[in-house]
Amino acid sequence: MGIRTYLEIIWRRFVVVCTTLLVTYGIVAAGTYTATPVYEASATLRVLTVPRGSSDYVSYDVAYTDRLMNTYAELATSGPVLDELLRRMGGGEVPSISLEIVPNSELMRIVVEDADPRRASLSANTLAAILVENNAAMYAGGGRTAQSILGEQLAQMDAEITSAQRQYEELVVQSPENAGDIAALGRSIEVKREIYAMLLQQYERARLNETLRASALSIADPASVPTRPSKPRVVVNIVLGAVVGLLGGVGLALVFDRLDARLYTAEQIEQVTSLPQLSRVPRGWRLRSLASFNGASPQMEAYRYLRTNLDAISRHHQLRTLMVTSAEPREGKSTTVANLAIAVARTGRRVAVVDADLRRPTLDELFGVANHAGLTDALKREASLDRLLQASPHAGISVLPSGPIPPNPAEMLTSDRMRAVLQELAHRFDLVLVDTPCLGPVTDPAVVASLVDGVLVVVGCARSTRDALVAALQQLGGVNANVLGVVVNLAEPNYVQRYNRYYRSE
């Protein structure tokens, strides 16, 4: 489907689109303006990158820092930390807490949401302080660390060096002749001093690392008291509500149109019937009313155009008797018969209008004639056509009303007398228009269709369904009816203006 088709569907389902839009917009607006305001406060923490190496060369373990950040993020919402937070806050409910790790940085953000702006700010700062304290306590506890172990080894080595130095001095004073022992003891002292220097270097490195780890987490930016609520976002919610409502309305319109079997446009009717559309009568007027042929009205143009097309067909095929029917009720077949009769009569031709709808006759009302006697009397041979034909208020038109409604309409129309009546009328008049019931539930139209020169099928936009129209055409095809084409009734005015734009006057 093209854009134009979608726009036509939206226009047809305008009520659905507007209703969905208004309902969605109303729900979102009501929820937005009645929701409790929520304030957001955030405290920013810095996680220092952990160095490794000596004091002369330092490298940075970025992967470890990332793991450390994720660890803090999990600890911040753990049970013990939240219990400590509630204890320091003096009880109450746990606020909404989330942690955000700022990409490509050493920063992480504690975000707290609460209905009280001061409580939100205080909760964020308190939680940040708890994390910093827990981090410091982790490295300041009583457990044995590398620094403490190296410190013990340094103290032990210092004591050994002091003892060896004392022995060396005593040996030099007391036994200077033992030069070999003195030299050996001196070498032992040098070795111990080298070991001490190495341990001291390792101790300094461990002390530096543990000092940095103990202070790896710090508060970079404490939370301030928010002045405006972060939720609900009035403008965002209203815009989203309108967008969602509009999209939902359009979606429902497309779904309803997909499920709706009715035919709304002349294009849809053409796709189903594959028959020529002899005219398109615009909607915007009463079905059971006659068009004004005194001016240039769209209805007048449509019936003139229908008359012109029928005249063109009659040049190749005789059209003295013409049946007008439809697939379903209230599609405008009787109105089409009456207005077509007027359009033809205005050219000076004599027209006979026969109401063969022996179930719900309407032509007598349209032309303002009596219906005490008519077609049924002619079929029963109870009166002649001269007595039954009535002059209408329109010059050149004679009306044969239905007469009393019989109990067996189909049987009466099937009789040879019906063929004889139509033949006699065809000899007397230039054109005989026959109005019949709707196709489908009854066989009357199919019976008459086999007796006339041509059949017009009136299809009302938004009145006829696809299945009913297909069944009606199949019914006409079953009796080999000469279906001339389709009259699209109740069409959109823009279609008619384009279709009949150059038929402005006779």
> From the helix content, strand content and strand pairing, which structural class follows?
alpha/beta
User: Which architecture of the largest domain per CATH?
Assistant: 3-Layer(aba) Sandwich
Highest-level CATH class of the largest domain = Alpha Beta
What is the radius of gyration?
50 Å
The strand count comes to: 14
User: Given the C-alpha coordinates, what overall shape results?
Assistant: rod-shaped
Describe this structure as you would to a colleague.
The protein is an alpha/beta fold and 506 residues long. It has an 8-stranded mixed β-sheet with strand order 7-14-13-8-12-9-11-10, sandwiched between helices. It has helices at 3-12, 14-34, 62-76, 79-89, 117-139, 146-174, 179-214, 234-259, 266-273, 298-314, 333-345, 363-367, 375-379, 385-388, 409-414, 416-428, 444-449, 466-478, 493-499; strands at 39-47, 51-53, 58-60, 96-101, 107-114, 217-221, 277-282, 321-326, 351-355, 390-391, 397-400, 431-435, 454-460, 483-491. Strand 4 and strand 5 (107-114) form a beta hairpin. The protein is 53% helix and 15% strand. It is built from 19 helices and 14 strands. The longest helix is centred in the middle third of the chain and has 36 residues, at 179-214. The chain has 4 domains: 1-34 and 232-260, no CATH class; 35-142 and 221-231, Alpha-Beta Plaits, CATH 3.30.70; 146-213; 263-499, Rossmann fold (3-Layer(aba) Sandwich), CATH 3.40.50. The protein starts with a helix and ends in a 7-residue tail after the last helix.
